[in-house]
């Protein structure tokens, strides 16, 4: 997640002052924790500083209301300078705070790097998922700190790059493991797009992520004049040559081993680019409940698609709305 970087050249700091009754003691702790969570720096006593932004100003306004409810009081002012501190000295205070928080993660990242190296040396099957789960947890912790790294501290940049390196290592290990021959493996036959034009694509009613994403893939990359038809899960499969079944048991395109239908169609039609690769991992994570491969976007996408599924008037409406979400998500990944 990107940090909310403050524009160093723009004037503005927020000084926050507050007082709260000594009892109950929990009230003071509650306010302190909220200030700490948003990245405020304590100057002295009950005086805190934040880079000026509309968001920070709004947060402090709500905090003053909360203080009033607790029997306390608070106020804040916007200022261009805080004597005798220079701009650089104030910025360094924020960077020092972030560096201290980042340092608490370094041992965890080092331990994960050692485990990844041991896995590469010993080749223990199945451990790559455990490594990915650990990385995802650390990435969430890192993302929380990055929200208050207003000036993109050097240590934060280094740790972010280190995270990418570990992630690439684990993804390579996962890919290598998946490419190993399996006794129950089923070969995915290569297909030609010209053989699948102006078809009716048949799938189950009440579509969710895999059917929505697969329909988007079909319309975007395979058959731009595709029509979609919905049948009950137990309905006999159509035998019409102009109809193609997908994401349905014994269909033309469906799950293979641990691959969802979207991934199977990608392979079958040789559809590959960086944006599709990222989208594929999100679809896989949601459809197969595979936490080890989750991206930060997955939870939000899943929530939106569940809302569509619940509110759409019929399967056709749900599919169209879901495809729009997938299309917007794909567009956001294109650089």
Walk me through the structure.
By secondary structure, the chain is an alpha/beta fold. The chain folds into 3 domains: 13-81, Alpha-Beta Plaits (2-Layer Sandwich), CATH 3.30.70; 88-179; 193-333, no CATH class. The chain is built from 10 helices and 7 strands. The chain has helices at residues 25-37, 54-69, 87-122, 127-146, 154-179, 209-222, 261-268, 274-287, 296-311, 315-333, and strands at 13-19, 41-44, 47-51, 73-79, 200-204, 227-231, 243-245. It has a 4-stranded antiparallel sheet. α6 links the parallel β5 and β6 (227-231). The radius of gyration is 26 Å and the shape is elongated. The mean pLDDT is 88.
Brief summary of the model shown:
By secondary structure, the protein is an alpha/beta fold. The chain has 10 helices and 7 strands.
How do the SSEs run, as a string of H and E? EHEEHEHHHEHEEHHHH
Count of alpha and pi helical runs: 10
Q: What fraction strand?
A: 5-15%
Major sheet details: 4 strands, antiparallel
